[in-house]
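FW: tagging you since you asked about this chain on Friday. Here's the raw sequence from the shared folder, copied in full. Didn't touch anything.
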Amino acid sequence: LLLHADSGPSQEYLGKRLSFIKSAKPIKGVTTAYVCEDFVCQLPARSPEALRSQLEDLVNYGIRFQKFAMI
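HL: got it, structure written out here
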């Protein structure tokens, strides 16, 4: 799910169904990304590098988990 947290209609709509989306907002006016899986979010990412790192970790974890599950 990619959400532009602008407090607009799409965020309001999803927030009614997924409560954790209600609180997603920029921090100190800086564009902020929230990487969440299974209703648990990582720390907010406020730079492209931080977001890339979180997404890479998520992908790498999935690959490791798949390998573990196959054993």
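FW: Confidence is low (pLDDT under 50) at residues 66-71.
HL: agreed, and The longest strand covers residues 36-37.
FW: great, closing this out.
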